[in-house]
Each structure stands twice: as C-alpha cells, then as structure tokens.
Specification:
about 1100 residues, alpha+beta
Length: about 1100
C-alpha cells in the first residue's frame, strides 16, 4: 500500500502523457510540410519558419538522460517558435555509420564465444570428475570382492593352497595396478581443483565486475536473452534500435516529424546517394586529397581511429617529437653480442633548441627497454610503446612489424657514457630518474638543467643523495662534471634561469610536481616568445623562429629522427591501444587558409547564445587541419571513386540536415527499402538531380522524375533551409560542429548556411558521470518510468543555461512531480469555484499589481525563450509566476477573495509559459479550462502594456515591510526579558519618514550610472574603481567616498533588478499615497494598530534627527512606538 501511495502523483502524470501522446499521434500533430505554391509568396516574404536539429545519435544502444538533456534544447525551441506563429520543424534520424555498432557486435560475438568455451570447459571438467568417481567406486568393489575370495580360499583344503597362493599373487598384482590408477586419478582431480584457485583471484573478479558485460547491457535495455545472440550481426542493431529510439523519444513527448527519419550507411540507398553526391561535390571543389599522413591508428582494426571510433581519448591528436640519437660510447655486458653495432639511445624532446644545454640523460631503472634495428640498419634503444609507434611510421622493413633484437633493463643503462648531438660536452652519462613516464616519449629524456626546472631539481636531488649514487655505482665525474648552463637568453633572467625559477617557486625537491609544472609553464612560454639563442649557429635569433630550423638541421644531418605518438592514451572501440601511423588516406583539408577564413566570416554572422561558446568554436577552428575520412572497415557509404574505402562517421554527418527537408518524399521507411510518396527510385537520384534540388543548377533533361516531383522537392528544400538552430554537446565542437560549418560554407551559398548554434555541457546523474562501466547509465525509457516525461523535462529545463556541465538529481525530479500535480489540483479547485470569486472592475491595488505582474512575466519569459535561457524561462514562467499568485492570494485574504478574471488570466498564463517544457501537462490543463482545441494551436499572447509604476510601487511596499520587520526583530532581541507573545509587548504603531526628492550628490551619481548603464547596453561592466574615478571628477563628490560607494552598489543592484527604472531622479509613484493604499496589509503584517507618514521637512530638527536623516527617496526610515 505504501508503495502505491508514493507513486500516485507520478502515475497520474504518466497516464496523462499516454493519453496526450495518443492524441498527437492520431492527429499527426507534428507532421509539417512547406506551404503550397499559392501560400508560398505570402509566407516566404516574412520567412515564418523554424528548422531545428540535433546530432543524430549512434544506434549502438538506447538513449540515456544525457541525450535527453541536449535534445531538450531543440525541443523547447521548436515548440516555442511554433507558439510564435512559425511553421516549426524538428526532424530526427539514426546514425549507424562507423565503428560503434561494428565494435559492439564484435565484442558481443567474442563474449558469447568466450562464454561458450567456458561452458564447454566446465562440462568437460564435470564429466571428468564423474568418470573419476566411477573409477573410485569400482576400486572399492574390487577390493571387497578380493577379500571375500581370500576368506573362502583359507577355508579350502590344503590341496588347493598352491592354487590359492597363485590367485593371491595375481590379485595382489592387480590391486597394485588398480591402486596406482586410483592414485593417478586422485592426483588429476586434485590438480583440476587447484586450477580455478590459481587463475581466478578475487582481484580479477572485482575487475571483471567493474566492466559492463555486453550481454548484461543488452538485457538491461529490455532485449530478451534468447534474442541477444542475433546482435552479433551489425544489421540486427540497425534494424532493432531505431524503432526503439523513436518509441522512447515519443514517450518523452518530442514534437518530431517522424516521416523524415532515416538511418545512415549504404543500407539506405537514398541517404547513400546523398552522401556520395556531397563527396563528389567536395572533390569537384578540390577540397579532398590523397596521401600519407600521420593519423591515430587502431592496430586491431588496421585502420585510422578518429574521434567517434574511440572508447576513450576523443579529441586526442598525434604529438610530434624529435628523437635525439645519443651514441653509446660503451656497450653494456648484456648487449655484448651487438658490440659491433653502433647503438643509440633515443631521447624524445619537444624543444630541440635546448639540446645545446645537455649535461646528462635520464633513464628509468625500473623500465625494460627494447633494442631495435630499423630498415636503415641503425640500432636504437627505446620504450616498448615507442617501438610499436615507430613500426607504423615506416621505420622497419614491414609496416606494423618491428624488429626487436633484444631487451635491456634501465638499471643496466645507468652510468653509460654517451655522445649526444649539439651537446657542449664530449661525453655525458645516463643517470637514474624515477619520475619518467613510461608511456610518454621514449622513456629516455635529454637533461638540460640550465633551461628546464625539472631537470635542474632532479640533478640537484641526485647530487645530494650519496646513497643513491653508490647504489648505481655513479662516480663524481658522471654527476658533477657537467654544470648546468642557460643556452637561451630571456629578458629579466640571469644565467641558469631554471635555478632562479626553482628558487622563486620554493621548489625543494622533485616530489613537488605541482610547483614544477607551474615553473615549467612559465619558463617554456617565456623561452618561446621572448627567448634568443646564446649558442650555436643561430646565436642571437629568436627561439620561436629557430625551433623548426634546428629540428630540420638535426634530421638532415642524421642526428635525429621525427616520431609521433598520441598526445594522450587512445583506446579504440575494439578495445586496443592506438598508435600513430603514417598511412595512405583520403583526407579533407580543413586547414586550407581561404576556406578557413570564409568559415570564420560566416561564424561572425551566427548567433551562439554564449560568448564562451563562440570562443570555443573559434579556437577549435583555428587548430583544425586535415581530417582523414577514409576507412577500410565498418559501416557507411563507400567513396564513389575509390570504393575500397568507406567514409567515416564524422564526415557523412555534416550536411544531412539538407536531406531532412526532402527525405519524407523519397523514402517510405527508415532504411529506404520502400519507395516514398513520389515513387522515386534511388538510382534516379543522380548527381545532376541533387545539384538541381540543393544547389539550384540546371534541371536534368534526361531524368525520369516528373517535373511536378522536381518542383515539390525543390520547394521543400528552399522553404526549410537553412538550418535555423543546431544544438550539440560541447564534445562535438572540435570535430562535428567545425565540419558542419565548413561543409556548408564550401558547398552552399551564404543564404543557405546555418544561422545559429547552441552548445551545452554534459549531464551527470546524482553527481556521478554516466557510463556503462560504472553502472551509472540511466536509460531514457527507465527514467520516464521512474519520474514521468514532464517531470524529466521540467528538471532538464531547470539545469544550467551555460555550456557548463550539469547534474540531474532524483530529488529534483520528485520535487517536479510534486509541483506539477499540486498545481493541477489547485487548477481543478479554482475551475470548480471560479464563478464564486470576486468580479467587476480591477480597482484593488493588489489586483492591479497582479495583473501587471502577469503581463510582465509573459513578456520576460518570452524573451528568455527567444534567447534559449530555459532555466530563466522556468524561473520566471513558473516559479516567479507561482510566487506572484501566492503573494496576491495572501494580500487579498485567500483563494476565494481573488478576482476571477485574474485567476483565468493566471491559469492561461501558466499553461502558456510551461507549454514548451511540459507539453502533456499543459495540454491536459488546457482541456480542464474547457477548451476543445489543442494547446498546440494556441499562439503566445501578444505583449500587453505593463505599468511599471505599479510594479515599482509593489516592490517598494514589499521592501518597506521587510525592512520594518527587521527593525522589529532588532528591538525584540534587545528586550530579552519581555514576553513577546503578549499584546502589551507589541508596538502600538509606527512612523515612516520619507523624502520629497533626492539629495544633490545622489542626482549626480544617478546621472553617471544612467550613462554607464546605457553605454554598456543595460549593464554595468565598469569596475567599482573605474566608477569611483569617474565620480571623483565632480568636486561635490570628492570627499564622499565612504557614503557614496555603498549607495552606488545599492543603486546598481536596483537598476539591474528593475531594468534601469530606479535610476531616475524621481520615483514613478507617490510614496505616501502607496503606503496609505496598503495600510491594511502593513498593519496586519507588522501587528500594529496605526501608523503615519511624515516628510523629512515636516519633522522638527531636534526630534529623532539622526533617524530621520537616514531616510532616502525610496528608502524610508521607520520608528516604532509602544
């Protein structure tokens, strides 16, 4: 019983949603087409349409709450724009391209095979145990039988003794053989019992438990267990999840035109044709090229692994290093067999110019290094991960296969004498370091302690640690002979500036990594931008200009090689650690200068809603260069002119918004296996046809498509394009959104390019990141079951309006359920008693206040929606609106004393402001009000005049009462011995002291604040110091800082709160009149019998002069009397 009661409110919302969704589906409420030819002339003049999109999600599972958070931004926008009288389109599709589905299917197949193998092993073990048990039973039976025979033989005649002895000997031999067999079987059984203990440690079980099983994951998504094996086929994922996704999103209440939905890949011949057209067009524009490029690469998949092919490491790029060849002057004993070879340690560096300052190199004593031979015959020593990366960068005979001659432990390398390029010393030594990252660079670092704080402090630590030097047999010559010297001149720094910086940061030892990092960042930046070389052939020249030249010199002279690796760890969806490979590939040159400048120019015309979003896009656009789009493996569309390659998932998803405009006319279902209403076949969609529809080129003469069909396709595209709004999470900025912009700029004219983009952060659930591996992945369908769709939408709207990450709390969802159902209950109550409420003209002060508040909130909420500030829209359109209703109800004496016209206005206003966010709930409320039509047909109310003088007067009264209550509390607090519950202790009345006009200095301050407020477009961007400097130019204000600045702070806050209205010299109302208008309320709340209002100049000079002096325009002083 308790459980059913606790879910009653939630269940009510779910039942409402189910009913409303059924109505929407039956009425095809969200299916919308471009206007007919007759209507087109009237509508396109004002272009009353809105086209919003969301990046279609991958179909490797059901959607979760994180998807819903981003989707909700488009959903709210589309519903609001529809209320603004626009034809509003929200299409939705399903991304099946690339590796996500392929990898999921492959992992599932491996998991099923592994489970089957384990099952077979267990069955074999079980059968083996059964056989052993049978053998044991047979042995016991045989032994008993032999004892019986022996007893019988002892009772026989002595004539048979010889036979008995013979039989006994035979039996003993037989028993010995059987016992041997038994012992052997028991040993085997014991060994089998030991195997699980050896290989199944608790640690391994915990590790496996932390990973999400693919089988379990599919079960949790509602897939029957006997159906799961079918998902080893990628086609099953493509067939299964798009309809499920549609179902989940319909439950969320999305206003989507599902006729336009489609899947990607060559399985959909219409979309396949569209993508082929896009890339043929890019090729014609000379945007595509072929050649070898460094690329993040999956050895397992044997193809490039870019952002959406990865399970971790999205956004990680190849990092180029210069590998310095340090020649070993003495070969360690373990490498004696290679003594005829010249062997080099490879030291990785990003700053080749600092090699002039080498004093030693660092190696890790705990690392095992590879000894490798390249195809040029040179022998190098480096870390194992370096070997693997080099193998894919054509340093060995066979691509991807390294030649490893031997292994050597870092301990053996310590103390090795080396000859290093550019070094000012003929010999330096390999010294131990315990802080080297084994998976970064080569595991070997050239030490330049004059210019690198970390090198300096490590060398100092080693010099101070005699025990450590003895442990590794390091002589003084190895450690002390080479002194640190700065080889770069930096302004304001002396010789050996690494030492100087370490001292300034207070770095005592190498364990203070945070300080060391700060020192490095500071020093390396100054080196690059202001440093000049002190030594070498480039002496006197700036580092920023010479770095690449020094690198080239080292490589050309054979003293270094170029090497790349991922700048951070990347794991593919197939589960392997990725490398950097030098690979033949088709790529898009997004770094082309003219193209990039055009994208920057277009971005200036776009609305981004937040300045940080614009900055993020601009910075991402700055670094983008070439993007490899060819893949050998996965799902997708094949490159038309090179069909052995597929187009990657981030490249076939840049222009598909255009496909939405006509997809419902071409295809009859998601995968295009059925013809659409125009009966156009996929093969009829030639490049010339696409050119005509999308680019306005000449109508194909030989096409079999009827002219009327051409006109309809053209009209749909022309009406809906461009894309008015694109909403995306911030993780897609560095790739998808940049590609989206660049492709539109390259292919479409200016008028068809995107108009706005809204970026949001990621969603956590209960303050934890959502992920399969942690089990904290909340599927959308489950969330709706738990909280209802409108409660979820309410919470999603109430999260941050900025691009920052947000947190979904279950308590917030439960609170939303309570708020919505409470309002529903109150609405029903008021509709029942509406005729019993007060009517007639709105003469009451609080009637006027509430009416103006309704008009003001509607206008403000509309502005919030227009700027996609949904948290603000909810704050104003629900919380502030409800608060205004509550105060009005309290001010007039209760529900039944409210004015019936205002209650009607309030109920309609509440439905209006909430409708984009909680549409099922509002549709239901709309019916309760007696309306027969759908709320979807209702426009946003036209703005009505707001009398701000009334609102200002109300704010004034609220502050007056609040400040008076504070004074009363202070009075009572000072009289602790008084019983506050008796009437004798309550004040009899009070006097309010007010001013007729502002003081002269205040008028000067307000005039300057008005100028600043207008100059910065209704904001105060100047700091307090700058405002003070401006005000002090007036002689009258120079000596009033202590009084003036608190007043400035207060008036700035009031100006922002009232949108600048209180910056006027005079209030828009008469203080005395307003106070007397609200006399009943003031007496009631302050528990007084009487009060009076006196102007400043009506008070005698000696009577409470200090109190009266504190009064200001809009800020009365109050004196209570008892």
């Amino acid at each position: 019983m308790r459980t059913s009661k606790s879910t009653t409110r939630r269940d009510l919302l779910l039942s409402i949603e189910k009913e409303i969704q059924k109505t929407w589906e039956e009425n095809h409420s969200f299916e919308i087409d471009a206007p007919t030819e007759i209507q087109e002339d009237n509508i396109t003049q004002d272009k009353k349409k809105f086209f919003g999109t969301f990046p279609y999600p991958y179909m490797n599972g059901r959607l979760h709450l994180g998807h819903a958070f981003t989707i909700s931004k488009v959903e709210f926008a589309v519903r609001f724009e529809r209320m603004m009288g626009k034809k509003s389109l929200f299409p939705f599709a399903f991304h099946c391209t690339g590796m996500p589905i392929m990898s999921s299917a492959t992992k599932l197949r491996r998991e099923i095979e592994k489970n089957q193998n384990n099952q077979n092993e267990n069955e074999n073990e079980k059968n083996e145990n059964n056989e052993n048990n049978e053998n044991n039973e047979n042995n016991e039976n045989n032994e008993n039988n032999q004892n019986q025979i022996q007893n019988q033989n002892q009772n026989q005649n002595q004539n048979q003794n010889q036979n008995q002895n013979q039989n006994q000997n035979q039996n003993q031999n037989q028993n010995q053989n059987q016992n041997q067999i038994q012992i052997q079987n028991q040993n085997e059984i014991q060994q089998e019992k030991l195997k699980p203990i050896v290989f199944r440690s608790k640690k391994k079980k915990l590790k496996q438990k932390s990973r999400a099983s693919n089988i379990q994951f599919l079960k949790e998504m509602g897939i029957p267990e006997d159906e799961i094996p079918q998902f080893i086929n990628p086609e099953k994922w493509i067939d299964y999840f798009p309809p499920i996704t549609k179902q989940d999103l319909m439950r969320l209440g999305l206003a989507v035109d599902w006729r336009r939905s489609f899947i990607t890949t060559e399985k959909n011949p219409y979309y396949d044709s569209f993508v082929r057209w896009q890339f043929e067009t890019l090729k014609d524009l000379n945007k595509l090229h072929f050649g070898k490029r460094y690329i993040i690469f999956s050895p397992n998949d044997q193809q490039p692994c870019l952002d959406h092919d990865r399970s971790t490491g999205e956004g990680v790029l190849p990092q180029e290093y210069v590998l310095i060849k340090m020649k070993m002057q003495k070969i360690p004993k373990s490498l004696e067999k290679l003594k005829r070879k010249e062997i080099y340690l490879l030291a990785a560096t990003l700053r080749p110019e600092t090699m002039y300052g080498q004093t030693n190199c660092w190696v890790s004593p705990n690392c095992d290094y590879d000894v490798i031979e390249t195809k040029t015959g040179e022998t190098y020593i480096c870390a194992n991960h370096t070997t693997l990366n080099l193998a894919y960068q054509d340093y060995f005979e066979t691509h991807g296969i390294p030649k490893i001659l031997s292994k050597i432990n870092g301990h053996e390398l310590i103390g090795t004498p080396l000859e290093s390029p550019l070094c000012q010393y003929k010999t330096i030594f390999a010294l131990p370091s315990f802080s080297l990252q084994r998976d970064k660079g080569t595991g070997i670092v050239a030490s330049c302690p004059g210019d690198a704080p970390e090198d300096f402090i490590m060398l100092e630590d080693l010099r101070k640690n005699e025990d450590l030097r003895k442990k590794y047999n390091l002589t003084d010559k190895m450690v002390f002979e080479c002194e640190p010297k700065s080889i770069i001149d930096i302004p304001d720094y002396k010789e050996c500036y690494a030492k100087q910086v370490c001292k300034s940061y207070g770095i005592q030892n190498q364990m203070e990594q945070k300080k060391i990092t700060q020192a490095k960042d500071l020093l390396y930046s100054k080196e690059y931008y202001t440093g000049q070389m002190l030594v070498g052939s480039y002496r006197g020249q700036f580092v920023r200009e010479m770095r690449s030249r020094i690198k080239d010199d080292l490589v050309k002279s054979g003293q270094a090689i170029i090497y790349s690796e991922p700048e951070a760890k990347v794991i593919s969806r197939s589960g392997d650690v990725c490398v950097v490979s030098l690979t033949d590939q088709w790529y898009i040159d997004y770094g082309e200068n003219d193209w990039k400048l055009q994208v920057f120019d277009h971005l200036k015309t776009m609305k981004t809603y937040h300045e940080e979003s614009r900055n993020f896009i601009e910075s991402s656009l700055s670094w983008i260069k070439q993007w490899a789009f060819s893949r050998s493996f996965g799902l997708g569309t094949r490159i038309p002119w090179d069909p052995k390659y597929l187009i990657d998932s981030l490249s076939d998803s840049t222009l598909y918004m255009a496909f939405y405009t006509i997809s419902h006319l071409l295809q009859g279902n998601f995968d295009g296996s059925k013809l659409g209403i125009l009966k156009i076949k996929p093969e009829q969609m030639t490049k010339q046809v696409w050119d005509y529809i999308l680019l306005g080129k000449e109508l194909p003469k030989k096409s079999e498509i009827p002219r009327k069909s051409f006109e309809l396709l053209k009209r749909e595209f022309e009406f809906w394009y461009p894309n008015d709004l694109r909403v995306s999470a911030k993780d897609l900025v560095r790739n998808h959104l940049i590609f989206w912009l660049a492709n539109h700029v390259a292919i479409f004219p200016k008028e068809k390019r995107p108009k706005s983009v809204r970026i949001n952060g990621h969603l956590t659930y209960n303050s934890q990141k959502m992920a399969k591996s942690t089990g904290n992945l909340i599927l959308l369908n489950d969330a709706i079951d738990q909280y209802s769709a409108d409660a979820i939408r309410f919470v999603l709207a109430d999260l941050s309006d900025t691009p920052e990450d947000v947190n979904f709390l279950p308590t917030s969802a439960n609170s939303a359920i309570l708020k919505l159902t409470s309002h529903l209950k109150w609405t029903k109550k008021m509709c029942t008693h509406l005729k019993d409420l007060r009517d007639g003209p709105l003469e009451n002060f609080f009637d006027k206040v509430f009416e103006n508040q309704l008009h003001d909130i509607l206008t403000t909420t509309k502005e919030n929606y227009q700027n996609m500030l949904y948290r603000e829209a909810l704050k104003n359109g629900f919380f502030n609106l409800q608060n205004a209703r509550d105060k009005y109800r309290a001010n007039v004496g209760g529900d039944l004393f409210m004015h019936q016209d205002l209650v009607r206005q309030f109920l309609k206003a509440q439905i209006t402001t909430l409708s984009p966010i909680t549409p099922h709930f509002c549709e239901h409320l709309w019916g309760i009000l007696g309306n027969k039509t759908s709320m979807l047909q209702e426009p946003w109310p036209i703005d009505k005049f707001v009398d701000h003088s009334v609102l200002s007067a109300n704010d004034y009264i609220e502050r007056l009462i609040s400040e008076s209550q504070k004074i009363l509390r202070t009075i009572f607090k000072s009289k602790k011995h008084i019983n506050l519950n008796t009437k004798e202790t309550q004040p009899k009345g009070c006097i309010f002291y007010i001013r007729r006009s502002r003081k002269s200095w205040q008028k000067i301050v307000l005039e300057q604040l008005r100028k600043i407020y207008d100059l910065y477009k209704n904001q105060f961007k100047l700091k307090q110091k700058e405002i003070l400097k401006r005000l002090c130019k007036f002689d009258e204000l120079k000596d009033m800082t202590s009084v003036m600045m608190p007043y400035v702070t207060y008036m700035k806050k009031e100006a922002i709160r009232t949108k600048g209205r209180l910056l006027a010299d005079d209030l828009p109302f008469k203080e005395r009149d307003v106070i007397y208008q609200c006399s009943d309320l003031i007496k009631k709340i302050l528990h007084i019998q009487e009060f009076s209002v006196l102007y400043y100049d009506e008070v005698k000079e000696d009577e409470f002069s200090s109190l009266v002096e504190k009064s200001e325009v809009g800020q009365p002083s109050v004196r209570f009397y008892f």
